[in-house]
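User: Round two. Same drill as before: sequence, then structure, for each protein.

Assistant: Same drill it is. First protein:
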Amino acid sequence: MHKPIIAILGGGQLGRMFIENALRYDVEVHVLDPDPQAPCAKLAHRFVQGRFDDHATVLRFAEHADVVGIEIEHVNADALEELQRQGKVVVPDPKALRIIQDKGLQKEFYRANDIPTAPFQLVEDRAGLDALTERLPAFLKSRTGGYDGKGVMALNTSKDMELAFNGPYVLEERTEIALELAVIVVRGPNGTTVAYDPVEMVFDPKLNLVDHLQAPARISKETASAAKALALKVAIALDSPGVLAVELFLTPKGDLLVNECAPRAHNSGHHTIEACASSQFDQLLRVYMGWPLGDTTLRGLAAMINLVGADGSGAPMLKGADDILHLPDTYIHLYGKVETRTGRKMGHVTVLAKDQIALDQAIAVTKVHGRVVPLNAGEPFNA
């Protein structure tokens, strides 16, 4: 009898953190990624260089796997359906993945299931977009392929349309937002579902990435309960096992709108590694293996600060580690990427604190001192 083999499509930092947790158990993790130096390459029990969006490559890679999962949405859903027909456990369900892969289908799914979301219109091409100037200001989203702030832009005037990427698009009405929240939901193969407390996300306006988040979000108990209930409604409607990150807008009037969701572990759940008994990565393993879902209770106040590449590119070096590690209950995670680039996610820092003052101070220290910069030739690593 062999160890269970889990085949993961995608070898980035999400896969790396999944493997770090899975190594505590008696399972094998195999990874497919086109980058031979992907963060998972040195940790996986078996690493295969190849395209996870290629049908034949995915089938060959997962031939001997018991479970097939993803760490990025942009994979070949047809291959996952074939593997599912072969009797393998596939997470997420390919039908749900197809909905999420296309932001247009995703928005229509929300509307069809009475899930509140910002008003939108589907637009096929630039000609169709140019005819909708009266709908500005708005947000323009690529229906497919967007990731980490890419494929989204603000349209304030008709001149902004000249810079638009290629369609098809989702044109979304600009909604007044008081806070951006996220809820991580976990759904087991038997339908058992749990949710983590909502987190409050603060975005970098230039990079359109999460700068940092706080858990739990600073919202009322009623709003927190409503956010969890809405996220659970999305998960139940999608009817797929796995980890689902549901991003929400909280309006000044107190309404909650679903922005979008991701059918995988997510940046908004990284704090759970230290802040909860069972992290989002541990939960995903439990889903794969059919084990009971873990405890989502927060141990206290927590924050997660992303470490993104400063200007320039090259071999990465973390500056400010001494200042960060002087803080109590602080944890640095570097993703093992061999090259830093401007705005690239290179790692994160999680801090736990007993009160809001201490948490705010820890966030400030990390943001001031923590930087990932290119290592210059001849420069000492600990400069």
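Second protein:
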Amino acid sequence: MFNLRRENTSIIAKWWRNVDKQILFLFIFLFLLGLFFSFSSTSSVIGEKMNKETYFFFIKHFIFASISLFLLIFISIQNKKRVVKLITPLFVISIILLLLVPLIGIEVKGSKRWIQFIFLPRFQPVELTKPLFVLFAAKLIILNVNTNIYNRYLYSFFSLFIIVILLINQPDLGQSLLLISSWIIMIFASGFNMVFLTFLVFLVVSLISLIIYFFPTKFGYILFRIQTFLDPKTGDNFQAQKALDAIKQGGLTGQGMGEGILKDKVPEAHTDYIIAVVSEEFGALFVLFIVIIFLFLTFRIVNKVLIEKNEFLKLSLIGLISLLIIQVFIHIGVNVRLLPTTGMTLPFLSYGGSSLIGSAIISGIILNFTRKDFLRDLNNE
């Protein structure tokens, strides 16, 4: 018992010595910021709308945030051999879960994106698939040295295509575009031939466009959203317009904590429009502060990439941070009506168990891959 306790203490002490504390504290701060916004701005109103106790949703958010922080630490503390070995089997499991969504998935507001098992709350399998796809693609491109280089890229493309088809079927165009964007950034960072990369991007966009065109009953909503975005008079822009109005009302310094009205008027204010709620109550300067945190986080990780020699780690870290930062800017773009509505949450800050768990998985892997001992051991192999 004593030796086991001392061994566990030794593992934690070793992790603490080697983990990048700036990145760790930034992740923790973002989770705490999400809790603060849930407590101060959204949970009580949402609770009243759904006939729940005043802080029912804050308590749920707190539980999910606590689980997420534990998961973040748990993933970041794992040894590198176990992490690399588990990439392929976990990726296959995530694909199986995506395949189960059309069969046993739960439909919410016209989209079937969630599944639920008896012993677990409902969750979105895509939140598990996203980081695992990045690691699997990096592994295909870099680690399979005996395979022709163009075949490696094609294998990663086909794995992406399978995921995108499954996501569009849910339908979930936002997550599809996020994965495609991250994959393109990874391919570009790997030094791939730009002509062939352009061809692949054109191929992906063309295939998706053809699917949407030939199945208008299933995917017509995508064209409708784009049409509504380009010409607001053609459709219902109530939520998007109210979000933009709230941002304008907030100005630079905001209306004051709890004084915003967007959360009373828009059903998804606590998820899809959380940045508009924050801007209305705390002002554009506070939103700028949040953006700066994400940019500094990206800058810190990119600096690690620039000095890193291991190509697998480089591509993995670039893909993982691109998942976060692209999602941030898609969310903000939708809130300020620079982009069509996508239903994209803001990492760490939006309410939702799947979103928080997904952010924790990405964060935990980033912390694991930026550990000093992980980098040293992998580079020595």
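The beta strands are 106-108, 111-114.

User: Perfect.
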